[in-house]
Design goal:
Chain A is mainly alpha-helical and about 325 residues long. Chain A is built from 14 helices and four strands. In chain A, β2 (about 170-175) and β3 form a beta hairpin. Classes of the chains: A mainly alpha (about 325), B alpha/beta (about 240).
């Protein structure tokens, strides 16, 4: 009976365990430092969510392991970087309106460019390897090499400095807690994206079909929906989300470099595994867990920061093998 | 003679390396329920999955209302007016009953909404649990939802795979009533192992065994042929199948 209770309440137990774990650092650090770390962690989590949500939707619906997601992320960053360079006056202007306008414009251009790239990728190579994970890994890994080399061809092999829009620089001092402006923007952007995705998935017919497709692709076809068109659309959206993540992350990390996608792709996969494949809510929760734990552990035990995320992933998978919020639950 | 709605001619289907359908032929005619009956592993489910395009026919022809459909994709076949209820019901558990029906509705016009109303009158439980997650429904209610989704469009041929599987006898009886209502509007091909249900709704039958059609005829004949039932369906000659 106990075992049944644990099984039934495994998600609540896992979430409660994570919350307790996140409150533990309060024993060793001051409240203000804790709040600063929490904001930094949330911002990192939201940036990871931007990348992971695309991976999750693509795997959840299409059952495609897209290792090229990191390269699409880098493409997003570079397209944004180019837009910033072309409109540098707006980026450095002491005007909140101009700064936000150029930031949004760069995001839109990056998302559209990378969505088109995603459509080409899906049509030309990924469509041929549906249902075969090994081939998907190999072929998307190959695509990553090509896409990263193309970045070197178009933008050069060196790291480039990403300019932060003027109004996004600096901090706010809120009751003696240092709050980085851009981190607040990232947190807002993450929650806004989550709300937008949820709205589309729950309130539009296309969104409902996508959710249904995550659960049972065969049935969706048998109900008269062209799953291949849906796949192309979902892949384009996933690629666009990667671009959004890349653009936002490059402003956060102040740089762009051809291999930048690989680092964040690893985090994105951890997020998706923790959250549950195919679930946007799962990706959000997973991203917050990874972002917070990375920042707390990096402050307390710097050498263990990356390993902590893997440990949390293992513990959650032991309690909930399908992740915290698997699709269909 | 009734008009032929679906004609399956010498169809072969493989699943992996296994040769499941070995040249089966059957026909569904207008105003009738055709039952594919046979033991486990006879190829019944494979047959309707092949009609639906979910499994590829490697040889033979499938003709629906005069058009060959064996090379068409499942969504194209569904859009031609063929509804499908799989053995596992294919319910989207994480979606509400309402959302399940929405996904099924290919066009949301006045006629479809009228059909939806009619369907909900037939399966009143669905109206009661309209906003509930489909995963929380009982087995019988899930089966009703699966059938409701398949008939909410302008379906002229309905393929149903073992609807009585795992259901209580009282639920099976209500399904029999529902299928008898459905057959007034659509041609039905039913895959069934439950002889009570097969005989209660079926007009014609095809017995499948090891990927071959071994016998066919009108249901009345099968009901009274104890030898056939014993040989291919494993029903004891003395059993009362009602």
């Amino acid at each position: 009976m106990e075992a049944t209770f644990i099984k039934r309440r495994s998600r609540e137990l896992a979430v409660a365990g994570v919350i307790i774990l996140f409150l533990l650092p309060l024993l060793g650090i001051s409240g203000k430092t804790y709040l600063t770390l929490t904001i930094a962690g949330l911002a990192m989590g939201m940036l990871l969510f931007l990348v992971a949500s695309g991976v999750s939707i693509i795997f959840g619906l299409m059952d495609v392991l897209n290792f090229a997601h990191g390269a699409l992320f880098a493409w997003g960053a570079y397209v944004g970087f180019t837009v910033f360079n072309m409109m540098m006056k707006w980026v450095t202007a002491e005007s909140v309106f101009k700064n936000f306008a150029v930031f949004l414009f760069a995001i839109i251009i990056a998302m559209i460019t990378v969505a088109v790239l995603g459509i080409v990728l899906e049509r030309v190579i990924i469509r041929r390897v549906y249902g075969n994970h090994l081939f998907q890994i190999l072929i998307t890994f190959g695509a990553t090499i090509v896409l990263v080399e193309l970045i070197r061809v178009f933008w050069g092999p060196n790291d480039e400095v990403m300019t932060v829009p003027f109004s996004f620089r600096g901090n706010w001092d809120v009751l003696d807690v240092i709050v980085d402006r851009y981190r607040v923007i990232c947190i807002t952007m993450g929650f806004a994206l989550y709300a937008a995705i949820q709205l589309i998935l729950k309130k539009t017919k296309l969104g409902i079909i996508v959710r249904a497709g995550v659960e049972n692709r065969e049935m969706i076809q048998a109900m008269g929906h062209n799953i291949f068109r849906l796949f192309t659309g979902v892949f384009a959206v996933g690629a666009a989300l990667a671009a959004l993540g890349g653009m936002a992350m490059s402003v956060f990390s102040l740089q762009v470099y051809p291999d930048m996608g690989g680092t964040y792709l690893l985090f994105a996969f951890i997020v998706v595994i923790i959250g549950g494949l195919g679930s946007v809510t799962g990706s959000l929760v997973g991203a917050i867990i990874v972002g917070l734990s990375y920042n707390y552990v990096a402050y307390l035990v710097p050498w263990a920061a990356a390993g902590a995320n893997v440990m949390i992933m293992i513990i959650i998978l032991l309690v909930r093998p399908a992740g915290l919020f698997p699709a269909g639950e | 003679m009734s008009e032929s709605v679906l004609k399956v001619e010498s169809v072969h289907t493989y699943i992996g390396q296994h040769h499941i359908l070995q040249g089966i032929s059957f026909e569904a005619v207008a105003d009738a329920v055709t039952v594919l009956i046979g033991r486990n592993g006879a190829g019944k489910s494979t047959a309707i999955k092949t009609v639906m395009g979910l499994l590829a026919a490697t040889d033979g022809r499938i003709i629906y209302r005069g058009q060959e459909i064996q090379r068409k994709k499942p969504y194209e076949i569904a859009r031609m007016g063929i509804g499908f209820v799989p053995e596992d019901m294919g319910i989207f558990s994480g979606l509400t009953v309402e959302e399940n029906m929405k996904v099924a509705m290919l066009v949301e016009d006045k006629t479809t909404h009228e059909r939806l109303e009619r369907t909900l009158n037939m399966f009143s439980d669905l109206r009661k649990f309209w906003k509930s997650k489909a995963g929380n429904l009982s087995g019988g209610q899930k089966q009703m939802l699966a059938i409701a989704r398949a008939i909410v469009n302008d379906t002229s041929l309905l393929l149903i795979d073992e609807p009585s599987k795992g259901l209580a006898p009282i639920v099976v009886e209500s399904l029999v009533k529902a299928i008898n209502q459905i057959k007034e509007r659509s041609v039905v091909i039913l895959v069934e192992q439950n002889f009570f249900m097969a005989s209660a709704v079926g007009d014609n039958f095809y017995i499948l065994d090891d990927g071959f059609v071994v016998h066919s005829g009108v249901m009345e004949e099968l009901i009274h042929n104890a030898e056939l039932k014993s040989r291919f369906l494993g029903i004891s000659k003395t059993a009362n199948t009602g």
